[in-house]
Amino acid sequence: MSEKNKDTKVYTKVIKDIKEKILSGELKNGDRLPSEREMAEKLEVSRTSIREAIRVLEIMGLIESKRGSGNYIANSFGNSLFEPLSIMFMLQEYSPEDIHELRETLEIECCRVASKRMSDDDIKLLNDIVDKMYKTNDEEQSLLLDIRFHNIIVKSSDNPLIVNMLEVISQLMDKFIKEARKIILCEENNREILLNSHKEIVLSLQERDEEKAIYSMKKHFEIIKQAYENY
Amino acid sequence: MSEKNKDTKVYTKVIKDIKEKILSGELKNGDRLPSEREMAEKLEVSRTSIREAIRVLEIMGLIESKRGSGNYIANSFGNSLFEPLSIMFMLQEYSPEDIHELRETLEIECCRVASKRMSDDDIKLLNDIVDKMYKTNDEEQSLLLDIRFHNIIVKSSDNPLIVNMLEVISQLMDKFIKEARKIILCEENNREILLNSHKEIVLSLQERDEEKAIYSMKKHFEIIKQAYENY
């Protein structure tokens, strides 16, 4: 077996072992891992390979090594852990329809929940964003405002799992919004339709009207779908 | 700066650089990366650090190194890339409500789409699974059948993005199903209610009835929610 395959194999074994311990409740954030010697014996590999696998997990940010004290599951995770996976998602080349479907499904739900949970400050923020959207003619700025608009609604869902999932594929989503805007704005009339659609979403949230919130977000995605079909 | 922080920093730089190249369309699956010398010069770090960062990405399965030829973006990704992220999701300790909300949202959509796209073979498979569910009294077997039932519906959505997202958090989902079943089955009557609910979903898919498919999956999640509330 080549050096590379051997290391990948030990890395996979170490990951699997840690995972089982987390599933069984034996390990959680901040907990100390067994010593490298113990792991080497249990998994029947050399200590050098264990050290290399641990090192990979450390650089990724899943594990913290403390000199003289051992290896620990990190207490909090930086973005470094998301990054390789987000690259993988970027390389998969999903179709616009696949991305549209996921976004539509999750954002309608986020918008529904946001109508009940969004803070007044965030609603004010959304109103400000829409005002700025009406005022600017600069597409680069409009795009950033659009992305921010949707992010605020997702975050207001107050569901950390949905927020984290969408974070993992945020580049994918941002790219989708950019392309969708391009396609929508090919039609002159669509600029106003798109602006009004954003406005309608804010109004429904402001009125704390769950049904309207669902309806306005559905309509928003209908505009995107229509534009793709006519393109 | 400690050795560890330095390496993490170079790794982050390398990842960022690769990501930008993918976003701009300069790099895709199977493409050759710039040489380690070029990367070291561009990112203003030593070649040794570049080599270490590349090595981490190689062990993770994102990059393939070919002796004498250079480093390439992998053509396909194994599970090894998903694993560290799935550990992170496991450690986050999301509430059952958060997991329920995500599952409900995505699975109702998957079920809606499956009513149009699911193959007759898969419908037969679902029918077999439900038959086995009725027959067995073994909870371990029932759990596996339940997990398989939902996986088949998700896969039939034919949306690789949704399938991949749910794969990343599959341990989380399986654990949720296990706990939800425990809570539901505390009530004697619920066993039959749960069985009939699975049956109803298959029937709606068999009839290719979109509205019924949505309704039956909604009802399924309503049973889970009710059980949690009465628990």
UniProtKB/TrEMBL annotation, chains A, B:
State the source organism's domain of life: Bacteria
**Residues annotated as domain HTH gntR-type:** 8-76
Cross-referenced InterPro entries = GntR_C, TF_FadR/GntR_C, Tscrpt_reg_HTH_GntR, WH-like_DNA-bd_sf, WH_DNA-bd_sf
Q: Name one Pfam family in it.
A: FCD
The alphabetical list of record keywords is:
DNA-binding, Transcription, Transcription regulation
**Listed name of the protein:** FadR family transcriptional regulator
Can you name the source organism? Clostridium saudiense
